[in-house]
Amino acid sequence: MRRTLLLLAALSVSSGVQPATVRGTELNTELVAQETASWCWAASASMALTLLGFPDINPVKDYQCGVVAAAFPAACDADCTKCDRALDSMKEFVGLLDRYRRLSLGGKADGLKASFSPNYVAFPDFERIKRSLDLSYPVIAGISPLEKPRNPALAAHAVLITGYQNDYLGSGETWVVLRDPYPYADGENIWINAGYSYTPETGRAVVPWRALRDRMNLTSAVFLEKMTAGDEPVRRPGASTSASRAGGT
Q1: Residue 18 lies in a domain
Q2: Alpha carbon distance 161, 158 (integer Å)
């Protein structure tokens, strides 16, 4: 499930400096492209749930449609196309993922599913994200490339963080790997336009952590493993309203 990188930087023996260790990890994730303009949240959740081994609950085997039905059971359990809509906020992921867990597990949970306990965090730090990835849990991230939302939970777009490297290409910076489910048209891709590596076939982007946080405005995240005593959410001042939602780009 996880591909771990352990690279030794080549340094001259005569320099007397010990080789530096570059560490990172990347979870093997298949892209789930969002089926509507507003379903980035459903596609990101589908990628995360599939990676962790949760089965498809949709009768016609449309995983993303099953996620939508779990999000809006009263309105869309019979027909997911009735719910071409965004989540109200990143916090809504918690209830959605908990419901999907209950619906999809007929027996006792095992493996990564046994410790599956979604929790929302505003302004997540990289060390928390790194720990999740090292434990083989991806992280659902809320970003707002055009404008930072006043309420961190009201992100404009959801992506899935699937890896990191602490010295990408010798840059001295920590970079992260993510999967973006949005099917960008030519000339509209936010990652390519910002100068970062992006593969359309897989939705895989590689971007400096600093840029993801500050330029793409990563203001919130949903972690999928149980919280520990040291994982209290960071609280920062901000208004409670914004035009952004956890929907499509």
Answers
A1: yes
A2: 10
Distance CA 94, CA 164 (A): 24
Give the helix/strand (H/E) hosting 141: strand 139-143
Quickly tell me which residue has 């027996």 as its tokens. Answer: 107
CATH number at residue 173: 3.90.70
Residue with tokens 């959605």, as numbered in its chain: 96
Dump pLDDT digits (tens) for 50-96. 999 999 999 999 999 999 999 998 888 889 998 999 999 999 999 99
Rg over alpha carbons for the chain, rounded to the nearest Å, is: 18
Q: Is 35 left (phi over 0), alpha (psi -120 to 50) or beta?
A: alpha
Q: Which amino acid is at 132?
A: S
pTM: 0.85
Tell which residue, 42, 47, 93, has the closest CA to residue 68: 42
Q: Does residue 188 lie in a domain region?
A: yes
Q: What is the pLDDT of residues 140-175, one digit of tens each?
A: 999 999 999 999 999 999 999 999 999 888 888 999
Pull the structure tokens for residue 234.
């960071």
